[in-house]
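Section 5.1 Outputs to date
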Amino acid sequence: MGDALASLLGSHATRCTMPAYGGGSILNLPAEIGRLLGVARGWEAPPLTNGVSLDTSGVRRVAMLVIDGLGWPDLRAYAALDPVWHRLEARYGGASRVLTSVAPATTAVATTALLSNGASPARSGVLGYSQRLAAIARVADMLYWRTVPAPGGPAEPLEALGIVPETFLPTPSLFETLARGDVRAEAFLPARIRNSPLSRMQFRGAAPRGAADLTDTLRQLAAQFEAQPELRFAYAYHPDLDTVGHLRGPGGGAWAAALAEILATLEAWLAALPGAVRHGTLLLITADHGLVPSPPERRRTLGALDGVPRLLAAPAGGEPRHVHLYARAGAADALVEAARRALGDDFVVLPGRDALDAGLYGDPARRHPDAGRRVGDAVVLALGDATLWSGDAEPTLNGMHGALDPREMQVPLLALPLDG
């Protein structure tokens, strides 16, 4: 699939990081966790390959902390100036690995992959921040679980239209798959999203506990490990770095200050952990995606593209760095060509069917029956720092993600044996 995707991207391939679904991506982490905990069956993707696989010796339980928006290139630059990340590696005998995100490299898609049984975006059917759902003939925002309104119109909750979070995915969750192997698990989320429709979709088989902040998340995680000797897996999610990256841009002073606070909190928590929690516990720290800057001068708007709007049958799906375009009947090829002419070298435009067949979203032989309609007729991938907005470019968003730039696709995996 890698060769097919590189061929489809052509000369742009050298600027892209391809999703390493075969064993080097976040899609492989669920099966890797299963391997560590002795659950070999039920996974749709393989575990991590030899280059990044983890040592199972002495592992009794696993905790995974997902730091939203922590891209490897920005982390590497930050760690060169601040010693905390390297100090954690040295103190606990851990080692950092580099994984890829999935496509699109965006939270709704990537966290669904992390919380699945290894189902790719093509297989799960969660193929974008927003996507067209044939069941309601509307473009749906998958993060906030509502329709994308026409200009001036209202957004409607998807549940009011019969789209039920708990039955949306065709594959089991990470928690359901672990439970079938008799592994007890817990999850910890910010309280405001604990019962959101997206969380209800992703956390089947778990009852996430709400937390006030990262300190509270980590405190609850440790308390549950200490109180429940049979608890063998815990998942925790922290969104604040992504928020700062969107608002202030990635890699800058505000972003670095937010990361410093996260790592200081983590280091202090680890230092205070009782031995009963440390013993046999492997802590995995990873991310769903990174970000790239989105400078105003590199922003385009869909409505201003010559020849494109008249060929569209619906609002665009995806997001500004990974856009799904839906053509009027019989206009799919014309839409691809018009978008290519209008966008030039700042974007690569792929026919949706070709993107699916080349494996951009996962194994093309295992795909959701509605995948083609959700991806649409043209897939627009931003290059460099470019973005393509459906309406007026949002002036407050100075960092974005979703495409194949190394800054958004490469994420860290730090494995820390806590009794090391």
